[in-house]
């Protein structure tokens, strides 16, 4: 259990706290919900930043110090999938992103995981490609943007000024762009990377 593997494992272990921070404000009384949502979603945003940093750092340390291990090859993608899919499901529950987008992302993960399982039986290892890494990066960006927007909106609601911001054309437009731009890019990359995996491994499917 070297340092890169510990960082990967930490991303999995932090999920219960992360999910709790996002969902817990709904359990407070209605008058205190906006303020608690602003604070707790703000903390969740900081955790998501830490997860994104450790996602880069564990791979960097493993390559730099020659610490790439079979356990690491399992934990790193597993941590990514647990965090990304878990966060997207919670954001869907909070009505920050549409359900169809979450279904598409999860379906792609099942597709690639199944393809890898078939490939392993044939002695073939399917490595993560560049498009898949960009996809994960944009999914993390979507999670960060959605949580940040939720925290800021809750802050405006707690201050009693959200109706003013929402009524302003540019205020509502900017809030919409903050989620829909990374959502659109991540969905395009999700579909493109899934198709790329299928086309690049047609021989595996034919076997």
What is the structure about, briefly put?
Helix content is 83%, strand content 0%. By secondary structure, the protein is mostly helical.
Structure description:
- With 207 residues, the chain is mainly alpha-helical.
- Helices cover 83% and strands 0% of the residues.
- It has 9 helices and no strands.
- The longest helix has 32 residues, at 33-64.
Q: Give the C-alpha Rg.
A: 19 Å
Helix content percent band: over 70%
What is the CATH class?
A: Mainly Alpha
Largest sheet: none
CATH topology: Four Helix Bundle (Hemerythrin (Met), subunit A)
Low-confidence stretches: none
Query: What's the helix count?
Result: 9
Q: How does the helix and strand content classify structurally?
A: mainly alpha
Count of domains: 1
Give the averaged pLDDT, no decimals: 84
Q: Give the overall silhouette.
A: globular
Distance between the termini: 36 Å
Query: Helix-strand pattern, N to C?
Result: HHHHHHHHH
Portion in beta strands: under 5%
Provide the CATH architecture.
Up-down Bundle
Tell how many strands the DSSP assignment holds: 0
């Amino acid at each position: 259990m070297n340092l890169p593997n510990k960082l990967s494992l930490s991303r999995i272990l932090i999920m219960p706290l992360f999910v709790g921070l996002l969902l817990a404000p709904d359990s407070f009384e209605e008058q205190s919900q906006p303020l608690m949502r602003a604070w707790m979603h703000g903390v969740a945003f900081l955790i998501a930043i830490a997860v994104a940093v450790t996602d880069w750092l564990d791979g960097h340390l493993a390559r730099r110090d020659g610490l790439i291990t079979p356990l690491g090859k399992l934990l790193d993608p597993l941590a990514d999938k647990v965090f990304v899919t878990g966060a997207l499901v919670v954001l869907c529950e909070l009505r920050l992103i549409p359900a169809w987008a979450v279904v598409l992302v999860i379906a792609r993960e099942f597709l690639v995981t199944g393809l890898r399982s078939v490939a392993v039986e044939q002695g073939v290892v399917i490595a993560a490609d560049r498009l898949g890494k960009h996809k994960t990066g944009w999914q993390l960006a979507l999670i960060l943007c959605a949580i940040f927007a939720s925290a800021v909106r809750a802050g405006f609601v707690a201050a009693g000024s959200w109706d003013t911001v929402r009524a302003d054309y540019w205020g509502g437009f900017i809030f919409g762009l903050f989620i829909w731009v990374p959502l659109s890019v991540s969905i395009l990359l999700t579909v493109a990377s899934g198709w790329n995996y299928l086309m690049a491994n047609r021989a595996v499917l034919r076997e």
